[in-house]
Amino acid sequence: MEGDCLSCMKYLMFLFNFFIFLGGACLLGVGIWVIVDPTGFREIVAANPLLFTGAYIVLAMGAMLFLLGFLGCCGAIRENKCLLLFFFMFILLIFLAELSAAILAFIFRENLTREFFTKELKKHYLRNNDTDVFSSTWNSVMITFACCGVNGPEDFDAVPLLPYSSLQRSTPEACCQRELQSREGMFVNREACLSGVERFQNRQGCYTVILNSFETYVYLAGALAIGVLAIELFAMIFAMCLFRGIQ
């Protein structure tokens, strides 16, 4: 009976580690896609050091889960106590790190409000100054998502015009409609846009556009995160049970 239980735990351990292996492969793929994607995310990631770091953290986490899933599968099938102990300790560290990140994200979620982004935009945005990380990132977001400001073009009324600008309109160039939503895309009518002709401007705020674009993916990511944490927890339990059951 004991041998049957040990055999069952071994194959369950292999199954859970196979899912961790697949999860690591998915994270690895997402991290690579965010960095090399040619539709605008690459510009945003490269322009923002925080996003740049985050993309490589996702890559590192994916690679680590990929490796640990592989080691867990090998440790379970071969009944190797060293591999199982190594797997348990690293999964425990990853589990605690992910749990801490989720708690911090919940605590600081109020920093992601519409009012917060509007205040930061009016305070730090420098229009077409691509040497400024904040402004360059915002310009890339507005071009990629065909949106303007947080709430709309009126957000830029409080942003000072450039000293050498002859135009008296507050709408930045990044809010002008383009034939292709990238920095290389041709303007539909740049002069009319900057002169205040609304039909050549992107009038919808980025907060609503991005929220609508990612609402489904946010819930999917949350469900995926809960699933990954549950799988890791069960994998640790089975790893320790299998470790203690191996003679």
Features:
247 residues, mainly alpha, 2 domains, 8 helices, 68% helix
- What amount of the residues lies in strands? under 5%
Kindly state the percentage of residues in helix: 55-70%
**What's the number of extended β-strand segments?**
0
How many domains? The number is 2
* Rg measurement, Å: 24 Å
Global outline: elongated
State the helix count.
8
Report low-confidence residues grouped into runs of 5 or more.
Answer: 164-168
Task: Please state the average pLDDT score.
Answer: 76
Q: Briefly note the structural class of the backbone.
A: mainly alpha
Element pattern in H and E: HHHHHHHH
Distance between the termini: 15 Å
Largest sheet: none
Task: Indicate the multimeric state.
Answer: single chain
Subcellular location: Membrane
Pfam families: Tetraspanin
Protein name: Tetraspanin
Keywords: Glycoprotein, Membrane, Transmembrane, Transmembrane helix
Molecular structure report:
This protein has 247 residues and is mainly alpha-helical. Helices cover 68% and strands 0% of the residues. The chain has helices spanning 2-36, 41-47, 49-78, 81-107, 114-124, 133-145, 190-194, 206-245. It is elongated and about 80 Å long. The two termini are 15 Å apart. The model is unreliable at 164-168 (pLDDT under 50).
